[in-house]
Recover the amino acids of this structure.
């Protein structure tokens, strides 16, 4: 998205605040700064080169980019895309990423994982019997995925991973890898 289009979309917001009903971060915090409407006002400040506070920067970075606000917006504003573009602009301005994100990036670069732990110590916090079960399941999963290339009639990846995501709030149907950005 180019900057002119982003500014035009942001200024087309009529402050109907319908997007607040579907925003998870607003539901948890009840802070309008952490709502799609509040973030659009911050995006407007970012792209008009106005001063923004550290709290406003954190507000942009706490957006999950789930896109539910896009679906409810009566003005058809692509809110998640504009917030994503503002994260990129913050990095270009030298105001992002946040310190926590920098730690995660360094952990991935140095330790090959996001929690800054040594690979061989990842399962040490778990009782031995569960650790063995996890390792065994990883081996089974590898064998199944390896078998997919031999027998194309095996279950799809979605069918395989869906039961494993049962305990999480993220629905596999809405999972979108291209929407996430580290910065």
């Amino acid at each position: 998205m180019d900057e002119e289009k982003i500014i035009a979309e942001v200024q087309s917001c009529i402050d109907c605040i319908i997007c607040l009903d579907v925003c998870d971060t607003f539901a948890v915090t009840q802070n309008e700064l952490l709502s799609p409407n509040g973030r659009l006002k911050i995006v407007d400040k970012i792209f008009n080169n106005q001063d923004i506070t550290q709290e406003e920067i954190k507000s942009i970075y706490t957006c999950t980019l789930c896109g539910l606000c896009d679906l409810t917006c009566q003005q058809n504003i692509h809110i998640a895309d504009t917030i994503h573009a503002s994260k990129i602009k913050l990095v270009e301005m030298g105001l992002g990423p946040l310190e926590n994100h920098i730690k995660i990036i360094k952990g991935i670069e140095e330790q090959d994982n996001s929690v800054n732990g040594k690979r061989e110590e990842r399962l040490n916090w778990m009782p031995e019997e569960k650790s063995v079960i996890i390792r065994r399941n990883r081996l089974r999963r590898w064998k199944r995925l390896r078998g997919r290339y031999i027998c194309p009639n095996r279950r799809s990846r979605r069918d395989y991973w869906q039961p494993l995501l049962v305990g999480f709030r993220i629905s596999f149907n809405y999972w979108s890898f291209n929407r996430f950005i580290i910065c």
Q: What stands out?
A: Confidence is low (pLDDT under 50) at residues 147-155, 165-183. The chain has two domains: 3-96, 105-174.
